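Q: Convert this sequence to structure tokens.
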Amino acid sequence: QVQLVESGGGSVQPGGSLTLSCAASGHTDLRYCMGWFRQAPGKGREGLAVIESDGITKYAESVKGRSTISQDNAKNTLYLQMNSLKAEDTAMYYCAYAAPGYCRAPSWRLARSFGTWGQGTQVTVSS
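A:
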């Protein structure tokens, strides 16, 4: 069974940067889809970026151009580097895992496409 543990959240000033990490364990399939989501208080879970095991990535418009999703297969770790952070980026950030192919689907931003989630890491952007 896949387990995900996020880290790297914290408080940062507007315009700052953060890199979130997600350590994955328990998966044996070399092919997969993984992604980053966030959820602000009172809002639904929003898909931000996904990456297939072959390296194909997709980004939501809200983070495109200022965020990069990447993976280190040797470390079984997924990353999300975020730059030019804004107050509206404040949320709980989650890592998620799905079967291969889901990242390519038009529905990739839907939380229900992903069956395994981490516990989340809080990101707060304020001055």
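The longest strand covers residues 18-25.
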